[in-house]
């Protein structure tokens, strides 16, 4: 049972993560490449994440309003949309968008470098390709996804405010008081905390698939594709785990 | 049958004198991938300033051999000594120092797609030499590009270059940290005959300018003829025949003859 391809893959990926932990925190540190990757993963993903978060916040508000009007609870719209975005939709949408954009890009880039011997060339040039290519990308994804999520939350809430004001009038102060007055630290912490794991999973899976690509260009395509699919699935699994842990520790 | 090849050009250097310094020793190495025994007790020596071509069929283990020499693969048995240092026992730092003295021209060129030609050339320079040559980086990049006749490509990306230009840039990257030994993996594969001859001439030019030794993996007989001081025929994982191009050309052995006819 534990020798099937799924477990073999899982063991290999766990070994890859172990190597990241062993090599990632020992010199030589690739600061410049880490900064480049933070720019590529964080800054260059912001337009995509921002647009999807804006649409998500606006649609959620507009769809929720008729129901809330029926119950005479329109004043609860900011709280309901705010909590939904901050606790679930913001992290999940950001994770999925980054997995789609960055996970596939890392898988394809490293896969292409592997099959065209660029990774070997790097090693011959006195560079540890694992540190230069893998450690920097995993760290950048781990650091950038939480920041992108916070920005996505803010953009989504802005869209919610816009949606409310399209069909009524609410001041910014009332809107923010309504949300912030309901939010506790214990509700925000797990929502932000899990995004570090989302970023780690996206970086790890993209790098693992790309770094171990073979079979030429077909292997590159397969690496990019499987990186997106597996990273997206992993985001939902990690979210499920996060809900379980939050419940167990009394955050929900 | 194709016509007999003309004799080697006069530009070829004489083979090193007996007793010349040995810079590379491969001693009875074996390498297998599962049931596929690629190398079986293969041995060779390379002298300073000498060009040795390892000739063999596709899949005969030629590329595996040079990847073992540079430490990208580890042989199952046998020893490899590069500039007197046993590759298998070196730590990361010592191996990196040794690799700074060995250039490797990859079959696929292995230029970094996301970097310009300048950045491709600066990469090994900064990695191997760090602060020592900071003020001279630009000068060294221009010198290396002049050596391969492509100074105008300095700000281009590899995707904007032709196959022959990419090969030359890859060679420039190999030369930018002056190597004592250069490993060429199929340097003319995939190139048109004219460009392939230009690469062959560059290999000779590099040998003369840097007095570097070269191990050239090839099955292009023109390349073998133009670049070799000595030829080793790799067959069934072993060193099947060895000699100058002219000696092997005159061989009546059917396996050797199959390559040279």
Automatic annotation (TrEMBL), chain B:
Coiled coil: none annotated. PROSITE patterns: ABC_TRANSPORTER_1, ABC_TRANSPORTER_2. SMART domains: AAA. It comes from the Bacteria. The keyword Nucleotide-binding applies. Keywords: ATP-binding, Nucleotide-binding, Transport. One of its GO terms (molecular function) is ATP binding. InterPro entries: AAA+_ATPase, ABC_transporter-like_ATP-bd, ABC_transporter-like_CS, P-loop_NTPase. Residues 24-261 form the ABC transporter domain. Pfam families: ABC_tran. PANTHER family: PROTEIN TRIGALACTOSYLDIACYLGLYCEROL 3, CHLOROPLASTIC. This is Phospholipid/cholesterol/gamma-HCH transport system ATP-binding protein.
């Amino acid at each position: 049972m534990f020798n099937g391809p799924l477990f073999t893959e899982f063991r290999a990926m766990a070994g890859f993560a172990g190597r990241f932990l062993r090599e990632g925190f020992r010199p030589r540190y690739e600061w410049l490449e880490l900064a480049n990757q933070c720019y590529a993963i964080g800054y260059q993903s912001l337009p995509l994440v921002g647009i999807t978060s804006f649409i998500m916040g606006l649609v959620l508000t507009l769809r929720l309003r008729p129901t809330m009007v029926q119950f005479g609870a329109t004043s609860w719209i900011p709280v309901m949309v705010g909590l939904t975005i901050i606790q679930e939709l913001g992290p999940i949408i950001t994770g999925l968008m980054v997995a789609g954009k960055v996970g596939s890009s890392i898988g394809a880039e490293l896969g292409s470098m592997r099959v065209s011997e660029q990774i070997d060339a790097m090693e011959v040039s006195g560079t540890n390709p694992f540190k230069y290519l893998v450690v920097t990308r995993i760290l950048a994804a781990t650091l950038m996804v939480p920041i992108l999520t916070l920005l996505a939350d803010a953009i989504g809430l802005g869209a919610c405010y816009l949606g409310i004001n399209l069909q009524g009038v609410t001041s910014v102060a009332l809107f923010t008081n309504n949300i912030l007055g309901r939010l506790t630290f214990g509700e925000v912490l797990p929502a932000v905390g899990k995004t570090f794991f989302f970023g780690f999973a996206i970086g790890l899976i993209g790098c693992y698939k790309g770094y171990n690509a073979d079979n030429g260009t077909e292997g590159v395509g397969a690496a990019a594709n499987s990186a997106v699919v597996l990273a997206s699935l992993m985001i939902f699994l990690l979210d499920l785990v996060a809900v379980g842990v939050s419940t167990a520790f009394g955050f929900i | 049958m194709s016509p007999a090849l003309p004799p080697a050009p006069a530009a070829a250097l004489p083979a090193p004198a007996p007793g010349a310094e040995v810079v590379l020793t491969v001693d009875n190495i074996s390498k297998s991938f599962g049931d596929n025994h690629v190398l079986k007790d293969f041995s060779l020596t390379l002298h300073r300033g000498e060009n040795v071509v390892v000739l063999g069929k596709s899949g005969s283990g030629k590329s595996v051999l040079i990847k073992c020499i540079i430490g990208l693969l580890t042989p199952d048995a046998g020893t490899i000594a590069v500039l007197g240092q046993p590759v298998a026992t070196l730590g990361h730092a010592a191996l990196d120092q040794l690799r700074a003295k060995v250039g490797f021209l990859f079959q696929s060129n292995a230029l970094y797609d996301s970097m310009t030609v300048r950045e491709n050339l600066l990469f090994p320079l900064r990695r191997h030499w760090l602060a020592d040559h900071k003020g001279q980086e630009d000068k060294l990049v221009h010198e290396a590009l002049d050596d391969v006749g492509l100074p105008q490509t300095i700000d281009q990306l590899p995707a904007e270059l032709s196959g022959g230009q990419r090969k030359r840039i890859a060679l420039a990257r190999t030369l930018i940290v002056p190597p004592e030994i250069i490993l060429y993996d199929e340097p003319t594969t995939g190139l048109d005959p004219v460009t392939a001859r230009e690469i062959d001439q560059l290999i000779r030019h590099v040998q003369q300018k840097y007095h570097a030794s070269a191990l050239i993996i090839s099955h292009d007989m023109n390349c073998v003829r133009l670049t070799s001081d000595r030829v080793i025929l790799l067959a069934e994982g072993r060193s099947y025949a060895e000699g100058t191009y002219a000696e092997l050309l005159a061989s009546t052995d059917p396996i050797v003859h199959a390559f040279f006819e």
